[in-house]
Specification:
The protein is of the alpha+beta class. It has one domain. The chain is built from three helices and two strands, in the order αβαβα. It has helices at residues 2-22, 36-45, 63-77; strands at 27-31, 50-54. A two-stranded parallel sheet has the order 1-2. α2 links the parallel β1 (27-31) and β2 (50-54). The longest helix has 21 residues, at 2-22. The chain is globular and about 30 Å long.
């Protein structure tokens, strides 16, 4: 249980640092540990646009992942 709490605290601190760095700008966060709770937390705490995109850690980024990211960038740029 302690390990789970430590992971959650580390994740929360990481979220806060990323949002502080983005400072209201649109940003993309690609990670192999992103889940719906992360997306909900960022949506509740961040006024800017954000894409939290999860990739499979054993595979990494693939062409279809990049297509999703590029589509998001184009939608934000309009």
């Amino acid at each position: 249980m302690r390990l789970r709490v430590c992971r959650l605290l580390r994740k929360l601190l990481s979220h806060r640092r990323n949002l502080a760095w983005a400072a209201g700008r649109s940003f993309i966060w690609i990670d192999d540990e992103i889940d719906d709770r992360d997306r909900e937390w960022v949506a509740a705490k961040y006024d800017g646009r954000a894409l939290l995109y999860s990739v499979e850690s054993r595979i990494g980024l693939r062409h279809n992942d990049l297509a999703v990211v590029l589509d998001w960038i184009e939608s934000v740029s309009r």
